[in-house]
């Protein structure tokens, strides 16, 4: 049996000792590059007051009797930039997925489980459920206008309507209108602040809403639901009494 030469043993030990600091440095670098557990707040309360737009996120428990399921995209996912912004309007989309079973839950699972893309939005609505995958005050990549100032990505709440053949599209539109009305009231916006994806990049989206000539109907639903919520809020507001 041949014996190892002392020189080779010493050289091997030296190489191991040299590699340890490199491995430790790599581990530290990896930790430093990880995103923090919570997104940074980049807009101050003072700036919010001056602009008139809200930067905090509300949490809806239900919309017109439909529970809102809050299942947030993990913060370390590429789909979640984690940047706080002002909420200036709502951006309406369609999933363009007509497969049977491609409802709000299916799209929520896809957003949570698939980290190979950066596309994201805040709400997905179908004919019986609503899923909420990002806090309303965080940027999401859905409008196709990159980081345009006052653009869909930077200031809009992205809402996707399901078009699966196994669902009732008209009911999905009605549920989306109620969600829009609730969000408009919550963030001090009006029905004039509801936009289509097409308004930001020219894409024919929401496709069915546009091609089936239902845009006007949808906006009328939003206005009616918003007016109803405003009237209810006014009725509940305390009135001043004369002394």
Walk me through the topology:
Elements lengths: L5 H28 L11 H7 L10 E2 L2 E5 L18 E6 L9 H10 L9 E3 L4 E3 L19 H4 E6 L7 H18 L7 E3 L1 H4 L5 H5 L3 H22 L7
Parallel strand pairs: 2-5, 3-6, 3-7, 4-6
Antiparallel strand pairs: 1-2, 4-5
Describe the overall structure:
- The chain is α/β, with parallel strands linked by helices and 243 residues long.
- It folds into two domains: 1-34; 45-236, Peptidoglycan recognition protein-like (Lysozyme-like, 3-Layer(aba) Sandwich), CATH 3.40.80.
- The chain has eight helices and seven strands.
- The protein has helices at 6-33, 45-51, 104-113, 152-155, 169-186, 198-201, 207-211, 215-236, and strands at residues 62-63, 66-70, 89-94, 123-125, 130-132, 156-161, 194-196.
- A seven-stranded mixed beta sheet has the order 1-2-5-4-6-3-7.
- α5 packs across α8.
- The protein starts with 5 loop residues before the first helix and ends in a 7-residue tail after the last helix.
């Amino acid at each position: 049996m041949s014996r190892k030469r002392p020189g080779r043993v010493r050289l091997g030990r030296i190489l191991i000792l040299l590699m340890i600091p490199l491995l430790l440095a790599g581990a530290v670098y990896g930790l430093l590059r990880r995103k923090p557990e919570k997104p940074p707040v980049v807009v101050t309360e003072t700036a919010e007051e001056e602009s008139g737009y809200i930067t905090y996120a509300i949490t809806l428990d239900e919309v017109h009797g439909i529970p809102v399921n809050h299942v947030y995209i993990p913060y370390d996912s590429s789909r979640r930039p984690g940047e706080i912004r002002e909420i200036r309007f709502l951006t309406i989309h369609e999933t363009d997925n007509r497969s049977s079973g491609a409802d709000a839950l299916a799209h929520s699972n896809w957003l949570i489980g698939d980290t190979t893309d950066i596309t994201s939005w805040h709400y997905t609505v179908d004919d019986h459920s609503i899923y909420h995958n990002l806090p309303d005050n965080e940027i999401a990549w859905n409008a196709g206008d990159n980081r345009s100032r006052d653009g869909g990505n930077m200031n809009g709440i992205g809402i996707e309507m399901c078009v699966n053949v196994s669902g009732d599209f008209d009911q999905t539109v009605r549920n989306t209108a109620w969600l829009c009305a609730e969000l408009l009231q919550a963030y001090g916006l009006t029905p004039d602040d509801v936009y289509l994806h097409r308004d930001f990049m020219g894409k024919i989206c929401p496709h069915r809403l546009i091609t089936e000539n239902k845009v006007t109907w949808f906006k009328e639903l939003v206005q009616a639901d918003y007016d109803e919520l405003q009237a209810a809020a006014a009725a509940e507001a305390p009135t001043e009494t004369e002394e």
